[in-house]
Amino acid sequence: MRKARKAFAVLCCAVGLAATPAALHAEDWIAFVTPCQDLSASDGESLWERPRLAGDLFGLRSGLEEKGIGLHFYATQFYQGLAAGGNESDWEYGGKLDSLIDIDGQKLGLWEGLFVNLHSETRLGQSVNNLDGLLTPSNIAMSFPEAEGNVTALTGVKITQALSPNFAVYAGKINTLDEYPLRYSPALGLERPGIGGFMNTSLVFNPIMARTIPYSALGVGAAVLSEGEPVFTLTAFDPQERATIGLQDPYERGVVIMPDFVLRLKPFDLPGVYNFGGGYSTAEYRSVDPASYLFLPDIGLVGGTEDGSWAAYANFYQALWADSKDDTKSWGVFGQFGISDGNPNPIRFVANMGLSGRSMVPHRPLDTFGLGFFYLGLSENFKDLAEPILPQQDEYGTELFYNYAVTPWCRVTADLQVARPSTQGLDTPVIPGVRMSMIF
Question: Does CATH number 2.40.10.220 belong to domain 2-20+41-439?
Answer without folding.
Answer: no
